[in-house]
Amino acid sequence: MGTKEKLKIGIVGTGGISNAHMRHYVTFDDMEVVGACDIVPGKAREFLDKYGLTKAPAFENVNDLIKNVKMDGASVCTYNTTHAECAIPLLEAGVHVLCEKPMSFTLQEAVDMVRASKKAKKMLTIGFQPRFDFMRKKIDSIIASGVLGKVYYVQNSGGRRRGIPGGTFVDKAKAGYGSLGDIGCYAIDECLHAINYPKPLTVSAIATDHFGKNPKYWPGYETFDVDDFSVALIRMEGGVTFIFKMSWAMHMDSLGYTAWLGTEGGIKKTREGAMYYTDIDGNHINSEVLKTIPFNAYEGDKPVDMWWAKMRTFVDAIHTNGPEPVPGEEILYNQAICDGIYRSSKLNQEVEIIIPKL
């Protein structure tokens, strides 16, 4: 593709999260949004008009969008439980896909998405914008350097004292998961991407809804039917143990800190910052990981907007024919853990994670 030819991007699902995509897309001069669809009549038309795209056509389903509009790529911003049914026909039609998180609801849906991507030889990237946070990238690079030795234990922090989002987030038919799919998948990615996503083997989990079902804490308690808290022990290949916990509501300010423990060192990350721990010549060394960001001597600090980076890297990857910024094949393990937590909590027992061949 010539550099002067604008990429053609479609939007599938024009609810709240689609605005986070569009507000950056409209600033890029090497692409254009050429159409959108939403199952709610008139919603896609209103969305496109809001951004001045009055000539771009609007539809009520993804198949009509595919049939009538030529696209190089598309953002899938639909309900969690419909990610697969929207992403797969796009991939099969030769369209690169940026799919919002969580990747899907079930593990099988995620597998089907990756298979479709591979068969079509089109990109499937998942919307984990925290990967572009500069502090996180610094921690990733420290771990990648090998100074921690063999990493054998990982745990995430996270959790809100009060933060049930409402709307479709608490509708099982649309969201599938509650806090697990909303913010839990981010925590899983932060912990495991840093150590190259070892394969998950088993999950023992409990998920509860003590706050969402209580009128004292949530006005929509009568229809609340997802998790507001979950905790899990995940055994992984290579002798890695992962402790996961996440909450939308609790009587606590935090569920602790994120940590990576290795045979030669460890890293602890909190809301305030990060620390690196090791021993040198028999002495304990506790070092702060400085909160520096990219700096230009003439312009000063140059922070990066994570959402801008998510959209920009997707567009750039289409221009250069890959690789995917956040490969669907990698996030398959993230989805396998979410699926395992859900199944284990429902069955009230440990479950094995079996990932089908791709």
Explain what the structure shows.
The chain has ten helices and 17 strands. The chain is of the alpha/beta class and 358 residues long. It has a nine-stranded mixed sheet, with helices on one face. The longest helix has 20 residues. It is globular.
Considering the chains and any ligands shown, give keywords for the structure.
358 residues; alpha/beta; Rossmann fold; Dihydrodipicolinate Reductase, domain 2; 2 domains; nine-stranded mixed β-sheet; six-stranded parallel β-sheet; 32% helix; 25% strand; globular
Secondary-structure blueprint of this entry?
Blueprint: E1 7-12, H1 16-25, E2 31-37, H2 43-50, E3 58-59, H3 62-68, E4 73-76, H4 83-92, E5 96-100, H5 107-120, E6 124-127, H6 134-144, E7 151-155, H7 172-175, H8 179-193, E8 200-208, E9 229-236, E10 240-247, E11 258-262, E12 265-269, E13 274-280, E14 283-289, E15 295-296, E16 300-301, H9 306-320, H10 328-347, E17 351-352
Parallel strand pairs: 1-2, 1-4, 2-3, 4-5, 5-6, 7-10
Antiparallel strand pairs: 7-11, 8-9, 8-17, 9-10, 11-12, 12-13, 13-14, 15-16
Helix pairs in contact: 1-9, 4-5, 5-10, 8-10
Strand residue percentage: 15-25%
Helix count? 10
Q: Please count the beta strands (DSSP E, at least 2 residues each).
A: 17
Q: What is the chains' assembly state?
A: single chain
Low-confidence spans: none
Largest sheet strand order: 14-13-12-11-7-10-9-8-17
CATH architecture assignment of the largest domain: 2-Layer Sandwich
What is the typical, i.e. mean, pLDDT? 95
Secondary-structure content class: alpha/beta
**Domains (count):** 2
| CATH topology title of the largest domain | Dihydrodipicolinate Reductase, domain 2
| CATH-assigned homologous superfamily of the largest domain | Dihydrodipicolinate Reductase, domain 2
How is the main sheet built? 9 strands, mixed
Order of helices and strands: EHEHEHEHEHEHEHHEEEEEEEEEHHE
Radius of gyration: 21 Å
Which CATH class of the largest domain?
Answer: Alpha Beta
Can you give the helix content as a percent range? Answer: 25-40%
